[in-house]
Write a structure and sequence with these properties.
The complex is a heterodimer of chains A (about 110) and B (about 120). Chain A is mainly beta. Chain A is built from no helices and nine strands. Chain B has about 120 residues and is mostly beta strands. Classes of the chains: A mainly beta (about 110), B mainly beta (about 120).
Chain lengths: ~110, ~120
């Protein structure tokens, strides 16, 4: 699975959009970009995933660059409850055991 | 649906003791996983199972054993607890069908301390 690079921490004002970047310059053509988050002491929570096209669901939007070497997770109106560690993970769909490899993630702090 | 449930929530073990961490899911998922998370670190995969009767090692399997006799349950066994196994343990499950990819659902975790 491709390695990802994320900033260790970011701040965002409540009500503003939070834009979390992820670099995955060695991504292969059959690898997806996944985002999970972990709110303090809880199990990780799936947010969104995509292959090439931009994706949106009720939680967030995922913007993937045309060359697929980087992506941005957008939380359109961040709330205090969005304070968490956000993990960007790149992996092959249906790969062996469908396992996830978690790196350090980005600690997002949403401030009032 | 209860989702993924784990018991116990907390446990303190003495060195050399053994215990089983329980994990159950009611979503009829065929894949199940055990991860550990050390303080300030990301999750590491211990073992996974692609269906009843089939298990395989992940990144950090030493000191652990698993079994999968039913679709719903995936217990993790520690035989001789060591301080290095002090961690938070998360169980997860996912649906898997052919080459499609589905998200993993995580349990609330078991916080284990070995002293």
């Amino acid at each position: 699975d491709a390695k990802t690079t994320q900033p260790p921490s970011m701040d965002c004002a409540e009500g503003r959009a939070a834009n979390l970047p992820c670099n995955h310059s060695t991504i292969s053509g059959n690898e997806y970009v996944y985002w999970y988050r972990q709110i303090h002491s809880q199990g990780p929570q799936y947010i969104i995933h995509g292959l090439k096209n931009n994706e949106t669901n009720e939680m967030a939007s995922l913007i993937i660059t045309e060359d697929r070497k980087s992506s941005t997770l957008i939380l359109p109106h961040a709330t205090l409850r969005d304070t968490a560690v956000y993990y960007c993970i790149v992996r092959v769909a249906g790969g062996a055991g469908n396992m996830l490899t978690f790196g350090g993630g980005t600690r997002l702090m949403v401030k009032p | 649906n209860a989702g993924v449930t784990q018991t116990p929530k907390f446990r303190i073990l003495k060195i050399g003791q053994s215990m089983t961490l329980q994990c159950a899911q009611d979503m009829n998922h065929n894949y199940m996983y055990w991860y550990r998370q050390d303080p300030g670190m990301g999750l590491k995969l211990i073992y996974y199972s692609v269906g009843a009767g089939i298990t395989d090692k992940g990144e950090v399997p030493n000191g652990y054993n698993v079994s999968r006799s039913t679709t719903e349950d995936f217990p993790l066994r520690l035989e001789l607890a060591a301080p290095s196994q002090t961690s938070v343990y998360f169980c997860a499950s996912s649906k898997q069908s052919g080459g499609s990819s589905y998200e993993q659902y995580f349990g609330p975790g078991t916080r284990l301390t070995v002293t």
